[in-house]
Specification:
The two termini are 38 Å apart. The strands form 2 sheets. The protein has a 3-stranded parallel beta sheet with strand order 1-2-3. It has 336 residues and is mostly helical. Strand 4, helix 9 and strand 5 form a beta-alpha-beta unit. The protein is built from 14 helices and 5 strands. It has 2 domains: 221 residues, HUPs (Rossmann fold, 3-Layer(aba) Sandwich), CATH 3.40.50; 82 residues, Orthogonal Bundle (Tyrosyl-Transfer RNA Synthetase), CATH 1.10.240.10. The structure holds tryptophan. Tryptophan binds next to strand 1 and helix 8.
Length: 336
C-alpha cells in the first residue's frame, strides 16, 4: 500500500550545521523518516543557497557538510529520498511553468522581499537596491520543490509558513488553468521540538553569531559550552532552571528523568561550571559515534556524492514522467 503521507523538506546549503539545526530540524526529520506510514523526501536546496550566498566555495562546502551530517546521523537513504536540488533539472523547469501562473502581486507580499524593501526605504535608498530576482521569486522555486513530488506535508520553521501558503496558491492557480495535477501541501510547524538558545541566550541562529557547531571535537565542544552566558550566581545559590540557557540545551538532549534531576540540582545550587560539564558529557555521549562517522564521510566526499547521485536518480524517476505530463498540459508538445 502506498503511504498516505508524503513529507518533504529542503535545507539551504549556506552554513555549517549547529546544535540548533540538529535539535530543531535534523533529528526530528530523521525520526519522521522511520515512520512506515510516511514517505520522506529530504533535499539540499543549493539553488536557494545562491540567493543568499555569493561565495561559491561556501555553497560547495556547506553542501558536503550538510549531506555528510544527515548521513552520519543515520538517515536511511533506502527509505528516504535524499538528493540535491540541482541534480533534478525538472525542478527549475517546473519553476518556470509555475512562474507563468504566479501573480507578481503575490510575490510582492513575501515577507523576506518586503523586509528587504523596507530596509532600503528606512535607509533612504532605492527600494530595489541589492534585491535580485532570485530573492523575489524564491517562493516559486520553493513551490516547485514541493509540487514536483506532490508532497502533502512540509515541516518548516514558522518563518516559512507564508511560503507554504504561496505554494498552495500557485498550485491552485495551475490546477484551475490546466487540470488537477497538484496536491495542496500543508506546512507543519512542530511546537514540541525545542528552539535552542545560543551562547548569548537568544535563539541559536547563524544570524546572531551565537551558534555552537554540531561537529566540534570533544575539546572544542567543551570549550564552546563553557562559554554559554550565565548570570553571576555563586555555587550553592539556588538557580532557576527555566531562566537558564544551559538548562534549556540540557533538556533538549536529556531523558525526562535526567531533565528532572538536573532541574532539582539547579534549585539545589549546582555551580555553573558543573552544570556545563554535565551538559558537555550529555551532548558528547550522544554525538561521539555519529561524529566519527561524519569525519569518515568528510574524508571521502566521493561516497557522499554517490549517495546523492543515487537519491537524485530516485527523485528523477518520479520527476521526469510527471514533468512530461505537465509539459503536455501547458501545450509544450512535439508537433507530431
Ligand atoms: N526556504 C527553506 C528555508 O529557508 C528551505 C527550502 C527550500 C525548503 N525549498 C524548500 C523547505 C521546500 C521546505 C520545502 O528553510
Amino acid at each position: 500500500m502506498k503511504p498516505s503521507n508524503r513529507t518533504l523538506t529542503g535545507i539551504t546549503t549556506t552554513g555549517t550545521p549547529h546544535l540548533g539545526n540538529y535539535v530543531g530540524a535534523i533529528k526530528p526529520a530523521i525520526e519522521a523518516s522511520q515512520d512506515p506510514n510516511t514517505e520522506t523526501f529530504y533535499f539540499l536546496a543549493d539553488y536557494h543557497a545562491l540567493v543568499k550566498c555569493e561565495d561559491p566555495d561556501r555553497v560547495a562546502q556547506s553542501t558536503l557538510e550538510i549531506a555528510a551530517t544527515w548521513l552520519a546521523l543515520g538517515l536511511d537513504t533506502e527509505r528516504s529520498v535524499f538528493y540535491r536540488q540541482s541534480d533534478v533539472p525538472e525542478i527549475p523547469e517546473l519553476t518556470w511553468l509555475l512562474s507563468c501562473v504566479t501573480a507578481k502581486g503575490l510575490m510582492n507580499r513575501a515577507h523576506a522581499y518586503k523586509a528587504a524593501v523596507a530596509d532600503n526605504e528606512a535607509n533612504s535608498e532605492d527600494p530595489d537596491l541589492g534585491i535580485n530576482l532570485g530573492l523575489f521569486s524564491y517562493p516559486v522555486l520553493m513551490a516547485a520543490d514541493i509540487l514536483m513530488f506532490n508532497a502533502t506535508t512540509v515541516p518548516v520553521g514558522r518563518d516559512q509558513l507564508q511560503h507554504l501558503e504561496m505554494a498552495r496558491d500557485i498550485a491552485q492557480r495551475f490546477n484551475h488553468r490546466y487540470g488537477e495535477f497538484f496536491v495542496l501541501p500543508e506546512g507543519q510547524v512542530d511546537d514540541h521540538v525545542a528552539t535552542l538558545p545560543g551562547t548569548d541566550g537568544r535563539k541559536m541562529s547563524k544570524s546572531y553569531d551565537n551558534t555552537i557547531p554540531l561537529w566540534l571535537g570533544q575539546k572544542a565542544l567543551r570549550k564552546a559550552l563553557m562559554r554559554i552566558q550565565t548570570n553571576s550566581q555563586l555555587p550553592g545559590e539556588p538557580k532557576d532552571p527555566d531562566d537558564s540557557s544551559v538548562f534549556a540545551i540540557y533538556r533538549a538532549f536529556a531523558s525526562k528523568d535526567k531533565t528532572q534531576a538536573m532541574a532539582q540540582a539547579f534549585r539545589d545550587g549546582m555551580a555553573w561550571g558543573d552544570a556545563k560539564q554535565a551538559l558537555f558529557e550529555l551532548i558528547d555521549e550522544e554525538l561521539s559515534e555519529p561524529r566519527a562517522r561524519y569525519e569518515a564521510l568528510m574524508a571521502r566526499p566521493q561516497e557522499v556524492e554517490d549517495r546523492l547521485q543515487a537519491g537524485a536518480e530516485r527523485a528523477r524517476a518520479l520527476a521526469q514522467p510527471f514533468m512530461a505530463e505537465l509539459r503536455d498540459a501547458v501545450g509544450i508538445r512535439r508537433l507530431s
